[in-house]
Each structure stands twice: as C-alpha cells, then as structure tokens.
Design goal:
This is Zinc ribbon domain-containing protein. The chain is an all-alpha fold. It has 32 helices and no strands.
C-alpha cells in the first residue's frame, strides 16, 4: 500500500533528497521551514486514516448507535409503514378472520351439531382464545394478546346468541337477551383484565374498553326489560336501573384507580356521566306532567331528582378529580340540582313565581358565597357557581323589563310636544314591574358574593347604580310622571359632575346626556335637566379642581341644549333661537379663553345655525346674519388671544361669505364687489407684516391679496368682455404693479402684473391675430422650427465633444 509521508522525497516535485537537505535540489522547496514539518505531520495522519479505514472495510459492520437506529427507523417510516404497524395490522386481520370463521362454522354446523356439540365447540374456542391471550401477554406479545382478547369477547357474544337460539337464554333481539349479553360481557371483561393483571402483570386495552359500553348496554336493556314487565311505575323502575348503572360505573372507577387500569377508569367515568344524564332526563320528563307541590313532594316525584343530586358527587371518589380544580363541578351540580327541586313547583304558577323562586335562590347562594369568602375563600366558588346556575331566568326578566321601560320612555311624545306633567304610558310586560328592583337586588347580592375582595368596593358601586336604574325603570313601568324619572337622573348626574372625582365627572356627564334625551318630550323638563348640568359644570369649572377640563368642554353643549329648550318654552321662533344660541356659546368661548371650550363651541355652533337658517322665512338674510355673527365671534376670539391669531382667517372668510350672500341677494354681478374687500384686507395685513419684517418675501406676504384682487377681473375680461372699461382699468393696474414692483424691488407685484398684463395683451391681440394672412403664420412657425432645430443640433455637438474629451482621459 503506498504511503503519503516520505521524508526522502520532495513533497512538491517528488525528487530524491540528499541527507539533511535545506532545500529541494530540483524545485528549491524550503525544507527547514516549520510549514514543512507541519506538512509531513499531516501526511502521516493521512496514512493513519487510510490504515483505519482499510481495517473497518475488512471487519464486520458494528451495531448502530441508538441515535442512528432512531434515524433509520424514521427513514423507514417515511418510506413505508412503521415496524410496529405491520404486526398490528396482521393481528387485527387475523382476529377478524377468526371471528368470521367462527360465525360461518356455527352457521354451517348448526343443523348437524347437537346442543352438546355446539356448546362444547363454543366453550372450547372461547376458553382457548382467553387462555392464549393471557399466555401471549406473559411473553410480552402485547399486540397478539390484545387481538386474542378481542377474539375472546367476540366469541362470548356468539356464545350468548347461541344460547338464545338453543333456548337456554332469552331469544336474541329482546331486552332479556340484551341483559344477559351485557352482564356476561362485563363479567368476562373483568375476569380477563384480572387474569392478565394477576398472571402477566399486563393491562389489556380491549378488555378495559369494552367493559364500560357493555355496562351501558346492560343498563339500557335492563331498563327496557323492567318497563316491559312493570305495568305501573315503569319510569321509576327505569330510573332505579340507571341510578344503579351510575353506582356501578363509580365502582368500576374505584376499582380501576386501585388497579391502575387507566382506560377502564376513563371509559367508566364517561359511561357514568351518560347514565347520570339519562337518569336526570327521565326524572325531569316524569315530573313535567305534574309540577305542583302535591305531585312533587306528597307523591314523591322529586325522589329521583334528589337521588341524581346525590349521585352527582360520585366523581369525587376519584382521587385525581378531588385533587384537581374540577372538584368543585360535582359539588356545584349536586347543589344546583338540589336547589332546582325548590324551583320546579314555581314553573306551574307563572312567570312571576319563577322569577321570585330563582331570584330567591340567587340571593341565598350569593349570601352563602359572601359568608364562605370570609371563612374559606377558596370554597366560595361552589355557592357562587350554584347562584350562577340560576342567574339566567332572573337576568332575562331584568333585561326584558328594562327594555320595555326604555321603549316607553322614548315613546312618550315628540320633542317639546308635551307638558311638564306628562306621564309614561308603559305597555304590559310578562312580569310584574314591582319585581324588578328585588330581581336586580338578588343579582347584586350574587355579584358581591362572587367578587374578589380587591374589587368589592367597585362592585358595590355598580350594584348601587343598577338598583337606581331599576327603580327608575319601575317608575316608568308603573305609568309614573316623566318628571319622576328625569329629575332624579338629572340630580344624580349633577352630583358627580360637581363634587366627584375626574372619572366620576365622565359618568355624570354621560348620565346627564341620558337625562337630556329622556326629557326631550317636554321643553320644561329638557330645560331643567340641561340647566342642572350647566350649573354643575359651571361650579366644577370655576372651582378649578381635577376634572375642570371636562366640565368646561361640556358647558357649550349643555348650555346650548338649555337655551334651545328654554327658547321653545318661551315661544321664541326657531329662526331667532339659532343666532341667539350661537351668540351665547360664542360669548362663553370669548370669556373662558380655553382650548376645550373653543373646540366644543366649534362643534356645537353649526347645529343651531342650520336649524335657524332652515326655519327662517328669508334664507339669504338669515344665512348672511348667521355667517356675520360667526365671523365676528371668530375675529373677536382671535383679537382677545395671541395664540388664536390664525382663527381670524376663518372669521374673515365667514364675513366675506356673509357679504357675498348679501350681494347675491341684492343682484350684484360684478366679481370685484365680492373679492375686493377681502383682497384689500389681505393686502393691508401683508403690508403691515412686510413693514414689521422687511426681510420677509413679498411673495409670502402680498401674493395672496394681489391674486385675489386681479384674478376675478382677469377671468371676467378673458371670458366675457375683452374690450371694456374693466379691461382698461385692469391693464392700468397691471402696469402700476409692474412699475411699482420694479421700483420697490418686490417680486410679488412684478410677477402678478407681468402675468396678468401679458394674458390681457394676448386676449386683446386675439381678434386681430385671426385676421392675419396665413403666410405670416407659416413664416413665424418656420422660423421657430429653424431656431429649435439649430439649438438642438448645437446641443448634440457639444455633447459629442464632451464624450470624446472624456474618452481621452486616463
């Protein structure tokens, strides 16, 4: 085998080296350099790797590591079936084949085998399959043992059916046959599980899984059998059967917990739950025909309901359930079902009786939760959960009564159409309105009992508010005067606005808005409700406490509402109420000088303006009046506060709009009448700004006013009247702008005068240009084209020369 490390040969050219050379005599490779030693060491390591690789090629393949084996298994799984899947499929198919063969054999041999023969064959096959499953389980062949367990149970079914055909058991298809089959299956499953556990230490899944459904089938067949055999009281007997099934399932759960049969534990738990639901359904249906006290208590109708309540505690026998958070569920269900027995007689007495019964239960269990919270805080969830179980009927009644009351309040009359003494005409409801406050109180007690200690105070406030609302709704439902609802709401809203915290101010304002909406049918009530809010907001705003910002912001809205209602009460026309309301709101903004008041005033003012203008006999006069008033208020606001200087522009625009409306109303058509005042104002403002700061640009200060002064006249001249006194005056004005701009060195007048004057000159030239001979136009066009072509060619030449110059650069 050739080697790579050769000290006698040059590593580069392969020449033979002399003894102790410094360099290669042929290629001059340095041999005393440290890199030469490193190269020789690397070549020796390569020789060692070759030797080891050769030895591995001749030796047997080593066992794969667990990681490699796992990767190999995953690779096989990706390419096909897993190793454990193949025998499972084969065993499942084998078990199915055995069962089919047994059925076919019995069907064929039934006519010529005697009873003894058939019995012997079935017993031998069943016992053999069961014994084989235990034997395979001892040898740790789990899949095979499970398959034979399934075969054994299938043969047991055939045994029972065969016994029925032979007359030794009830005929197949009857309830008796179902009882025998269920009992035999349960017994065989338990025996098989016990043999596997005792002899092999195994826990077969099939036997555990079949036990619970077999028990459920046994209970159903036994209940049907009892009903068939019992003329009277069949339902009660069936209830007893299902109760026994629940107890049997609980016993299986206890057995499974002790023997660690996990599958049986889960399956039995599920079957027990199903049986309990069936027991509960039968008990409720049985008592639905007679819900009176006599039928339920004197005749024992509630017996099985109480039994079901007691059986609901059986899941606590499972230690895992007792240790988990779900342990409260059986307790809640048992207590709720026991309490339901007290409510059932009320179902026969009407909606009011049901509301009283459920409300009483909610309140009692809420008090129990509150008491438990002091002694055992963690156990509070049980009574709270029972209270929650009966909340739905109470909540439905409360919501329905409130909805009826709200509908009645909103339908009293149209806005401002009723007197102060108008009454609420509420329609009839399914519940007595006098039960609304007790129902809300019951819900509040339950909420307080379930609320954590940290939120107890907040919950108490919410409960108090809910009781107050329920009281007002009750008054509305009892056809009380509208004032009896509106005034308490208004006064209750004023208290937190005037004296409460900042968060309470928001609540008070919202409540005040509700009171204002409810008071709309009566102008007097609306004025009173809004006035109370105005007084509370004024006190809070002037006091300067926390929440004053919200009070200031609410003042314009509340004040406008109060003024509008008071105006209607005094008989003031809507057209006059509009500008009067705007004037008061604007004066408030001028006196307050606060940003929140300004914003609220801007949001409020358009609505009375719109109402006043639409209600006026002369729309143009009213619109001009309102625009003038708004513009004057905005300008005054800008003059009273340096921070609001820009508001003057909006005020000026409104004043100009008011002027335009009046000019249009009197028939003025000249555009200068509309734009000249505003342009003059802009020029005055621009000249003052330019005088104060000469370094500022004339474009920024004078251009808006100059454009507004010149553009309307220019457009009129260009479109309508090119030869007129307006055109002459416009031309003189443009000339003055050009001369003045050039003399003063201002760009804005020079630009406006030049552009406007040029357009004016072109417009004056247009009629004569149309009469010019065509050859003149053609000559002018040709000259322009020649100049353009020459310029283009010169640019191209210069670009080519520049490219040659760059190419010569190095």
């Amino acid at each position: 085998m050739p080697t790579y490390a050769r000290p006698d040969l040059c590593s580069d050219c392969g020449a033979v080296l002399p003894p102790e050379p410094d360099t290669c005599p042929r290629c001059g490779l340095p041999l005393r350099d440290p890199l030469a030693d490193e190269l020789l060491s690397t070549l020796r390591h390569a020789d060692d790797l070759v030797v080891r690789l050769r030895a591995r090629a001749t030796a047997p393949a080593p066992a794969a590591t667990p990681a490699l084996a796992g990767r190999a298994r995953r690779g096989l799984a990706r390419r096909g079936l897993a190793q454990a899947t193949v025998p499972q499929l084969l065993l499942a198919l084998g078990a199915a084949c055995l069962l089919v063969a047994a059925v076919v054999f019995l069907a064929v041999a039934w006519s010529w085998l005697g009873v003894a023969g058939r019995t012997t064959v079935l017993l031998v096959l069943t016992v053999s399959a069961g014994a084989a499953s235990v034997l395979l389980s001892r040898r740790e062949l789990v899949a095979a043992a499970e398959a034979l367990c399934a075969v054994t149970l299938g043969l047991v079914v055939l045994d029972v059916l065969g016994a029925g055909e032979s007359g030794w058991a009830p005929e197949p298809g009857t309830s008796g046959s179902g009882v025998v089959l269920g009992a035999v299956l349960v017994a065989v499953c338990l025996v098989l599980s016990g043999l596997h556990l005792r002899l092999a230490g195994a826990r077969p899944v099939v036997a555990q899984l079949v036990t619970a459904p077999a028990l459920l089938g046994l209970a159903g067949s036994l209940a049907a059998f009892v009903e068939e055999r019992t003329a009277d009281g069949g339902a009660a007997s069936a209830s007893g059967v299902w109760a026994g099934c629940v107890v049997a399932a609980a016993a299986l759960v206890v057995l499974a917990v002790r023997t660690r049969l996990t599958v049986l534990r889960v399956a039995a738990g599920v079957v027990g739950g199903v049986a309990w639901l069936v027991l509960l359904a039968i008990s409720l249906v049985d008592n639905a025909a007679d819900l009176s006290l006599r039928g339920l208590w004197a005749e024992g109708g509630v017996t099985w309901l109480l039994v079901a309540a007691a059986l609901a505690l059986l899941p606590l026998l499972d230690p895992a359930v007792r240790r988990s958070a779900a342990a409260v569920v059986p307790e809640v269900v048992a207590m709720a079902l026991g309490s339901l027995v007290l409510v059932l007689p009320a179902l026969d007495e009407g909606a009011d009786a049901v509301l009283v019964a459920t409300g009483a239960l909610v309140a009692v269990w809420g008090l129990a939760a509150a008491g438990t919270a002091r002694v055992l805080p963690r156990r509070r969830v049980v009574p709270a959960g029972v209270a929650l179980a009966f909340v739905a009927p109470v909540l439905v009644a409360v919501v329905s009564l409130h909805a009826v009351a709200l509908e009645a309040l909103l339908g009293v009359a149209a806005a401002y159409d009723a007197t102060v003494g108008v009454r609420v005409d509420a329609p009839a409801s399914a519940w007595d309105p006098r039960l609304l406050v007790p129902a809300v109180l019951a819900l509040g007690v339950a909420a307080l009992g379930a609320a954590p200690a940290a939120r107890l105070r907040r919950t108490a406030v919410v409960v108090g508010a809910a009781l107050a609302v329920a009281g007002l709704a009750t008054a509305a439902l009892l056809d009380a005067p509208l004032a009896a609802v509106v005034l308490p709401v208004a006064l209750t809203a004023a208290a937190p606005v005037a004296l409460g915290s900042r968060r309470a101010v928001w609540s008070g304002l919202a409540l005040g808005a509700v009171g204002g909406v409810l008071a709309l049918p009566s102008a007097a009530l609306a004025a009173l409700a809004a006035g109370v809010v105005v007084a509370a907001c004024s006190y809070r705003a002037l006091a300067g406490r926390a929440g004053a910002v919200e009070a200031w912001a609410a003042l314009p809205l509340a004040g406008a509402a109060a003024l509008w209602a008071a105006g209607d009460l005094a008989g003031v026309d809507v057209a006059h109420r509009g500008w009067a309301t705007v004037l008061v709101v604007g004066v408030l903004a001028l006196l307050a000088r606060r940003a929140e008041v300004d914003v609220a005033a801007v949001l409020v003012a358009p609505w009375p303006v719109l109402a006043g203008v639409l209600a006026a006999g002369d729309l143009s006069v009213s619109l001009a009046l309102h625009l003038t008033l708004l513009g004057a208020l905005l300008v005054a606001r800008a003059l009273t506060d340096d921070r609001r200087r820009r508001v003057a522009w909006a005020g000026g625009l409104l004043l100009a709009a008011a002027t335009w409306v009046r000019l249009a109303d009197i028939g003025v058509e000249a555009p200068e009448a509309y734009t000249a005042p505003t342009a003059l104002a802009l020029l005055v403002v621009g000249l003052r700004a330019l005088r104060r700061a000469p370094e500022r640009s004339s474009v920024a200060t004078l251009l808006p006013g100059l454009v507004l002064a010149v553009l309307p006249s220019l457009l009129w001249v260009l479109a309508e009247d090119p030869v007129s006194w307006r055109a002459l005056l416009l031309g003189l004005g443009c000339l003055l702008l050009v001369l003045g701009g050039a003399r003063l060195g201002w760009q804005a007048p020079l630009l406006v005068g030049t552009v406007a004057g040029g357009l004016l000159v072109l417009r004056e030239l247009a009629p004569y240009a149309a009469a010019t001979p065509q050859w003149v136009l053609l000559a002018a066009a040709g000259a322009l084209l020649l100049v353009a072509g020459t310029t283009w060619e010169r640019r191209v030449r210069d670009l080519r020369h520049a490219g040659h110059y760059l190419a010569r650069l190095r």
